[in-house]
Amino acid sequence: MRDSRSKRIFMACAVIVPFLAYCVYYYAHVFKNAPYKFSEFEYMSFEYGPGADSLVNKYNSKTGEYQYVDTRDSIIKMNVHIPKEELLYLHRKAADLGFWDFPNVEVGDTTQRRNGMRPLRYVIEFKYKRKTKKVIYDESFDGDPRLKDANQRLIKEIKLVLAKEEGKEK
């Protein structure tokens, strides 16, 4: 009985304790060096429009410059500053949706048209002190449906935040 107990204690000391120590060391290092920390966030930019050459709808959180085409095809320019809390929300939403792991270019058949219109192209960029993530997403992208859904959800969230802050500015 005494022998069995000392074997268990030895096993715990020889295997489990070093394993736990290694886990703490490894994950502390990983989290410390996480590439996309909000504390290092500089700005977010968002552009979209039909095709690659006409991204007329633009927003940059650093400058606050917001330009979009309204329902009467007029270009509206205004200054909209998104509060830090909302930028943190978008940062977290991007992380939840796996934005950091998205391919940089997600483009499908650019000659494809819907109702005579070219598919919308979106350029989403999150800029940090040490790293930048920029994704070009085209509505004609025919890749993984989960990836398409994640892109569309992030775009929807960005548009909602912009619409909310634009309403406050008016």
Q: What is the strand arrangement across the widest sheet?
A: 4-3-2-1-6-7-5
Number of helices: 3
Structural class of the secondary elements?
alpha+beta
- Separation of termini? 79 Å
Main sheet characteristics: 7 strands, mixed
CATH class type of the largest domain: Alpha Beta
Domains, number: 2
CATH fold descriptor of the largest domain:
Mago nashi protein
Described by the principal axes of the CA atoms, the overall outline is elongated
Order of helices and strands: HEEEEHEEEH
| Number of DSSP-assigned strands | 7
Helix content: 40-55%
The CATH architecture of the largest domain can be named as 2-Layer Sandwich
CATH superfamily of the largest domain: Mago nashi
Strand content: 15-25%
Could you list the spans in which at least 5 consecutive residues all have pLDDT below 50? none
- Overall pLDDT score: 85
What's the short story on this structure?
With 170 residues, the chain is of the alpha+beta class.
